[in-house]
Amino acid sequence: MIDVKEIQVLNSKKCNCGYEFTLKDFTKLENLTDTHGFYANIVKHYSMAKCPKCQKEVILLLKQKGQTWEIMNTAKLINSNDNNVATIKPEIVSKSETIVDNKLICPVCKKVCKSKIGLNAHMKIHSK
User: Fold this and answer.
1) pLDDT tens across 31-87, in order?
2) Largest CB tally within 10 Å, which of 17, 56, 82, 94?
3) Shortest CA distance to 77 belongs to which of 128, 1, 23, 6?
4) Are 112 and 105 in contact (CB under 8 A)?
5) In sequence order, what are the residues at sequence separation of 6 or more whose Cβ sits closer than 8 angstroms to the Cβ of residue 6?
């Protein structure tokens, strides 16, 4: 877990190389600690992500939006350099459904659902 005092918000959803991060880029949903007053208390989760173009690692700051998530911003660890942000290695999500903080992650597009019923309903869009 990362404390909000350990990160620097980069004020962009894009990498320096121009790649725009999406929910497909996040790997593991984790809780931020000490979020009182941070983003008006709406950003309480994050995920590590790696830019597919330049391989730079960033932190995706996430806001819950219904049964899914929205990327509010990117950030980096304050004590990291710009080439490799994280000393924390993200956990690779398996091809089967994954449960994180009592939420299910779609194995196809990485959308996060709150319940098995929500995931099953969501999976229908991939079978069309």
Assistant:
1) 887 777 777 778 888 999 999 999 999 999 998 888 888 898 898 888 755 444 333
2) 56
3) 6
4) yes
5) 77, 78, 79
